[in-house]
Design goal:
Oligomer: single chain
Number of strands: 4
Order of helices and strands: HHHEEHEEH
Structural class: mainly alpha
Distance between the termini: 26 Å
Number of domains: 2
Largest sheet: 2 strands, antiparallel
Length: 156
Amino acid sequence: MGAEGLRGYAKVVYNLDLTLEEAKRFRSMFFQSYPGIAAWHQWTSSKISADAKTLSGRKRLWQSTAKITELLNTPVQGTAADITKKALALLPQRLAGLGARIVGTVHDEIILEVPQEMAKDSAANLQRTMIEAGQAYLSRVPVDVEVTIGETWAEK
């Protein structure tokens, strides 16, 4: 996101008022800390394109030249969706015998309903499966998955 977007995000999510200059400075510090992301943003910005791909090769097409935010967002969010779908395809067989069921997904989260006595085993199984799914696409970066056990989804 740009500096204005960062200002809005900081206000809505953290109730933090940033000046435009502060937002620009934070953004600049982020890209200095992650030069690979800065280089990718520059490379993507230099392209005139009407399509973008996820790491699985899934392609998103636009009728005309896409906005830079769309070209940057599609590989990131689309690949997260690919990882989630791969994990969802692997899970039913891996959850067999645990009494666990997939009850929902939200973005890159998979929600299971599990008998309490199988919660830890199911959580470990889910974590291993999501890491494996992520590693199928993210071979050059570590894949870390956080799993939470709670009575309700609100406890995550």
